[in-house]
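User: tokens in, sequence out, please.
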């Protein structure tokens, strides 16, 4: 395992690219409504990439065909935007986006409602968002990596949801995926000792039912095995001597 600690100047550059990630996600979210296809959302992201002068982190990555991941309802992650997939009232939509600028990557994700959604769907979104906040609170020098993991798992399971185990968060910097892997489950007090300069993409993926997932025939789209709802939030977070610095939060 190779851990790359970032200098303050590198963290500044990562802050810059992550603010662009947030702005592009904001633009996509503003366009996400019933009657809009997920391909149209990908087109919004593509135009914003060009406007900001950045490079997609997703397009072409291991053959991925789009700049955005659009994951609806039972899709956990890696939903491919399509012209024939149209949002409808009551859906929940996971948006995941990353890009490069000046040699550094930014990465963030959020789940949002399309119109009015069920109470269970809203609770799932709220718990997943709060699980990420709880995890961010553990991003301080001297903590252990699995303190982050446990902060997510504890809240999720207390609310009778399940944490996806097949996909995890990751280090981030000059590459989108760096060491260490950041599972969303674990035991407090275990794992890598956190140091200032470490930057992590923390991304709880939470299911309403079983934690088990299936990957569809396109080799990308991951869905809950029981086809119940899933939610996903992600921030890129720098560990500093002053505490967690959420790079992808404006």
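Assistant: Sequence out:
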């Amino acid at each position: 395992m190779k851990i790359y600690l970032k200098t303050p100047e590198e963290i500044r550059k990562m802050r810059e690219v992550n603010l662009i990630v947030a702005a592009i996600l904001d633009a996509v979210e503003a366009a996400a409504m019933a009657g809009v296809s997920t391909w149209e959302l990908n087109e919004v992201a593509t135009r914003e990439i060009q406007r900001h002068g950045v490079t997609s982190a997703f397009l072409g990555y291991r053959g991925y065909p789009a700049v955005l991941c659009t994951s609806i309802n039972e899709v956990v992650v890696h939903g491919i935007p399509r012209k024939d997939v149209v949002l409808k009232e009551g859906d929940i939509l996971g948006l995941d986006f990353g890009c490069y600028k000046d040699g550094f990557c930014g990465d963030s994700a959020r789940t949002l409602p399309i119109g009015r959604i069920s109470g269970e769907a809203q609770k799932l979104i709220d718990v997943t968002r709060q699980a990420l906040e709880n995890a961010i609170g553990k991003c301080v020098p001297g903590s252990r990596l699995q303190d982050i993991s446990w902060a997510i798992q504890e809240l999720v399971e207390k609310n009778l949801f399940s944490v996806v185990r097949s996909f995890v968060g990751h280090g981030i910097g000059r590459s989108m995926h760096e060491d260490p892997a950041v599972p969303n489950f674990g035991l407090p007090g275990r794992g890598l000792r956190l140091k200032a300069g470490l930057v992590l993409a923390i991304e709880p993926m939470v299911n309403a039912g079983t934690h088990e997932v299936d990957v569809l025939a396109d080799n990308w789209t991951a869905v809950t095995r029981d086809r119940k709802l899933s939610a996903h939030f992600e921030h890129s977070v720098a560990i500093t001597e002053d505490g967690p610095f959420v790079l992808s939060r404006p």
